Each structure stands twice: as structure tokens, then as C-alpha cells.
Amino acid sequence: GEVPVIRMGNIVDGSLDMTELKFLPSAHEEFPDLLLEPGDLLFNRTNSPELVGKVAIVGQDVPMLFASYLIRLQFAGSVLLSSYACYWLECPWGREWARTVRTDGVSQSNINASLLKAMPIPLPDIKEQHEIVRRVRALLSIADTIEHRTNAALTRAEKLPQAILSRAFAGELVPTE
User: Fold this and answer.
1) Number of Cβ atoms within 10 Å of the Cβ of 73
2) Which tens digits make up the pLDDT trace of 32-79?
3) Which residues make beta-bridge pairs with 47?
4) Could you report the per-residue pLDDT of 80-137, keeping only the tens digit for each?
């Protein structure tokens, strides 16, 4: 009877992190209005200055709700792909746009729905949007592979001095008589 509520902390790198969820009863009065659908784009309208404007796409077809400091965006799939809009908002231009339009408070920044609606976004035809999304995903996959390999190499490199010293003290690096 309880339904997970997506909050700003659940938006990580363009996707939803489904750990550390809060729940509301399915009988909650706002349940129908806050129910997410696959393809919805969530925009973090309130957060710290560097994190306001984070976005994620709802991919799961399971009942989920969203917190009030998130804005749900739904697009006509024949005009604008949510994945294309997500990548646009995450790109350097989108991050710079968020930085310039946000209003800053003491420790929180905000971007309201009116500003979000007015955000300029290039709108190629739907076929080209699909191709852009495909290429971005392919490049991000390559970047992830490189990051994993780099981290593995760094881990090995950190262990190398210790291994060399161990072999040196054991007399394994130079011929012994």
C-alpha cells in the first residue's frame, strides 16, 4: 500500500537512484496528480546552486510519486523526446542556462516552472533527435568504459610501489649469490 516518492537526492547523473526512498500510502489525496509515467522528465527546481537543474528520466513502469520541489515534464513524443531534452539540460549549455536563470537564496537556489517553460531548446526533427540520443548514449558508454579501466589502472598503480618494495626486500629484483 505504500508508493515510493522520488526526491532530489534520487536524481543522479541523469537517472534515478532508487535507494533511500521515502514512501506515501497509495490512498494519499495527491496520489493521482503526482503519479509518474515512463518517459516523464524530472527537473530539480530547488537545490544548492550547483545542483539545481538536475534532471532524470523515469524509466520504470512501476507506481512512483515525485516530491513537490521537482517539476515533471511530459512531452509529445512526436515533437520532443524526453531523453533528448534530458541530454540538452545536462550539457554545458543547459547547466550554464540553469546557472544564469536561477534565483539564489541563503543556501538554496530555485528555477521556477515559468523559466523552465521559456528555456530555448533546439528542436531538430524527431528522427534526428533519435540519432542524437543514440550517439550520446554510445559516447557515454565509451566514457564509462574508459572510466572503469582508468580506475582499475589507478588501483593497480597504487599497489605497485608496495609490491616493488616487497620484492626488493625479498631479494627478488637483483641476482643474489
Assistant:
1) 20
2) 788 899 999 999 998 888 888 899 999 888 889 998 889 999 998 889
3) 109
4) 999 999 999 999 998 899 889 999 888 889 998 999 888 889 999 999 999 999 999 9
Phi, psi of 30 (to 5 degrees): -95, 5
The reported pTM is: 0.79
Closest to 82 (Cα-Cα) out of 46, 49, 37: 37
Question: Do residues 87 and 136 lie in contact, with contact meaning Cβ atoms separated by under 8 Å?
Answer: yes
Contact 160, 152 (CB under 8 A): no
Cell triple for residue 100? 544564469
Local confidence band at 176 (pLDDT 50, 70, 90 cut-offs): low
Query: What 3-state class would DSSP assign to 65?
Result: strand
Amino acid at 110: N
Give the separation between CA 27 and CA 13, rounded to whole angstroms.
31
For cell 516523464, the residue is 40
Amino acid identity of residue 147, one-letter, is E
Q: What does the chain come to in residues?
A: 177
